[in-house]
Amino acid sequence: MFFSGAISAKRAGIKLSAIKAMYKEGIRAITDDGCALMNEDLLKQALKLSKKLNIPLLEHCEDPHLSAGGVLNKGKVSARLKLPSAPREAEIFIVLRDILAAAALRAPLHIQHASCRESIELLRCAKKSGICVTAEVCPHHFTLTDEDAASLDTNFKMNPPLREKKDITAIKKGLKDGTIDTIASDHAPHLKSAKKKSFIKAPFGIIGLETMLALVISELVLKKIISKKRMVELLCLNPSILLGLKSKGSLMPGMDADICIIDPLKKISVPHKFVSKSSNSPFIGKKLSGWPVLTIVGGKVVYKR
Ligand SMILES: [Zn+2]
Question: How far is the CA of 62 from the centre of ligand 1 (A)?
Answer without folding.
Answer: 9
